[in-house]
């Protein structure tokens, strides 16, 4: 099942997820990963109860719905974790770039420190 199919099923069937009452699929994106894990555990326990072996009960549409809901929660958790990893990588790149720029500026200052007064004076005259 593709992501589009999962979310279409959620919208068409008006699926509600157990969190402080019931929330819709779009509300899941506002939750933390920990809250999503809590929802996953609740849904997973419902699946385990529904999957108890029975000779009289056949697989129902509710089983498929629960599995779809679990897949939606898993997908959203993956998206959130991927976004967090991307944010951390961007932050690390930004910090590394800043450090390199500071070192370049320091080396440029050191280079100016080694110049003679005549060279510095001519550089000043060129700036006027």
Q: Could you explain the architecture of this structure?
A:
This protein has 128 residues and is mainly α. The protein has one domain. 75% of the residues lie in helices and 5% in strands. It is built from five helices and two strands. It has helices spanning 3-12, 25-28, 33-50, 61-113, 117-127, and strands spanning 16-18, 22-24. A two-stranded antiparallel sheet has the order 1-2. A hairpin with a 3-residue loop joins strand 1 (16-18) and strand 2 (22-24). Helix 1 crosses helix 4 (61-113) and helix 3 (33-50) runs antiparallel to helix 4. It is rod-shaped and about 100 Å long. The model has no long low-confidence stretch (mean pLDDT 89).
Uncertain runs: none
Largest sheet: 2 strands, antiparallel
Average pLDDT over all residues: 89
Count up the domains: 1
Structural class: mainly alpha
The helix content, as a percent range, equals over 70%
Q: How are helices and strands ordered from N to C? A: HEEHHHH
Oligomerization category of the chains in this entry:
single chain
N- and C-termini, Cα separation: 69 Å
- Percentage of residues in DSSP E strands: under 5%
Looking at the structure, what is the overall shape? rod-shaped
What Rg, in angstroms, do the CA atoms define? Answer: 29 Å
Q: Which strand order do you get reading across the main beta sheet?
A: 1-2
Number of strands: 2
Count of helical stretches:
5
């Amino acid at each position: 099942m593709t992501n589009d199919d999962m979310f279409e099923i959620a919208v068409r069937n008006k699926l509600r997820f157990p969190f402080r009452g019931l929330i819709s699929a779009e509300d899941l994106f506002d939750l933390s990963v920990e809250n999503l894990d809590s929802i996953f555990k609740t849904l997973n326990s419902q699946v385990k109860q529904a999957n108890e072996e029975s000779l009289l009960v056949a697989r129902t549409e509710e089983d498929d719905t629960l599995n779809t809901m679990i897949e939606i929660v898993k997908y959203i958790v993956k998206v959130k974790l991927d976004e967090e990893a991307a944010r951390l990588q961007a932050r690390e790149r930004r910090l590394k770039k800043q450090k390199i720029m500071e070192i370049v500026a320091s080396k440029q200052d050191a280079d100016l420190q080694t110049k003679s007064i005549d060279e510095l004076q001519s550089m000043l005259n060129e700036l006027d």
